């Protein structure tokens, strides 16, 4: 009942907000630094581990708390470009959030590979950019595009049958966030809620028997919906294994910008 009331509240909340005017995504201005070692980001707060360096060719970043959102922002994608016209391209690069940035001088700390990718495609520009160390940037949230790849569910090693399950969502597309997860036996209408343990990891100590299905509350900006994944984990699910969720989240959320015309990517 508690879970149902929460779901209903989310739907009603976004129904009332749906008529509010909004931009696509706001353009933000800040500074960016970089980590010389990608392992710093792969061992970050989102708990992606060594998998982090495989996302977007290692173009990953740590983000400030307002982006990290206690873990809800894990996996979010941002287009970032630096504002040095001599060294930087107008395209910039796309990064995925894998860690929490506690440095109040920068909104984002990029992997060195992502930092270099903001440079113009001319000889020596990337090395010259690295020497800057800290650069002015502008960035905005963009769609995480995994092509035809479905969202995956990874069963974490901390899971212990039959009562404790810890999962992590991988390859979530779109431009929104999963803010709640419910779990049930396949074919059952008796749902129990999972809680966010840390970063991208969700847990429950009330694991139903049999094959398992999930439903996700997906929100972002002024958009919200519930996504059902009808059969994800088999009866004999195993720790460390990755399972196809059978769905992909492709929604494009909006974000209020004031005024909108000042947030156009030029």
TrEMBL record:
**Matches recorded under Pfam families:** DPBB_1, Expansin_C
Q: From which residue to which does any coiled coil extend?
A: none
GO cellular component term of the entry, any: extracellular region
- Tell me, which GO biological process terms does this entry list? anatomical structure morphogenesis
Say yes or no: keyword Isomerase present.
Answer: no
Source organism superkingdom? Eukaryota
Record domain Expansin-like CBD: where: 163-245
List the subcellular locations.
Answer: Secreted
Keywords from the named record: Glycoprotein, Secreted, Signal
User: Secreted as a keyword?
Assistant: yes
Q: What is its main location?
A: secreted
Q: Which residues form the signal peptide?
A: 1-22
Q: Report domain Expansin-like EG45 positions.
A: 43-149
The family assignment reads: Belongs to the expansin family. Expansin-like A subfamily.
Q: What is this protein called?
A: Expansin-like A1
């Amino acid at each position: 009942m508690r879970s149902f009331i929460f779901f209903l509240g989310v739907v009603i909340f976004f129904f009332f907000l749906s008529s509010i005017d909004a931009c696509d995504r706001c353009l933000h201005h800040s500074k960016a630094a970089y980590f010389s070692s990608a392992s710093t980001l792969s061992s970050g707060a989102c708990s992606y581990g060594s998998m982090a360096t495989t996302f977007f060719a290692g173009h990953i970043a740590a983000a400030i708390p307002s982006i990290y959102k206690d873990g809800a922002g894990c996996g979010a994608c941002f287009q970032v470009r630096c504002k040095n016209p001599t060294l930087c391209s107008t395209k910039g690069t796309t990064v995925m959030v894998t860690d929490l940035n506690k440095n109040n001088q920068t909104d984002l700390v990029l992997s060195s590979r992502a930092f270099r990718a903001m440079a113009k495609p001319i000889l020596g520009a990337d090395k010259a950019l690295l020497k800057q160390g800290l650069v002015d940037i502008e960035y905005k949230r963009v769609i995480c595009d995994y092509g035809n790849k479905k969202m995956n569910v990874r069963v974490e090693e901390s899971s212990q049958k039959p009562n404790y399950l810890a999962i992590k969502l991988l390859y979530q597309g779109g431009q929104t966030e999963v803010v709640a997860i419910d779990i049930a036996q396949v074919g059952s209408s008796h749902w129990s809620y999972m809680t966010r343990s840390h970063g991208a990891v969700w847990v429950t100590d009330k694991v139903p028997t049999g094959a398992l299905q999930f439903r996700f509350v997906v929100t972002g900006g002024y958009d919200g919906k519930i996504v059902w994944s009808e059969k994800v984990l088999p009866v004999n699910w195993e720790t460390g294994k990755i399972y196809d969720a059978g769905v992909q989240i492709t929604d494009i959320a909006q974000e209020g910008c004031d005024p909108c015309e000042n947030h156009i990517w030029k």
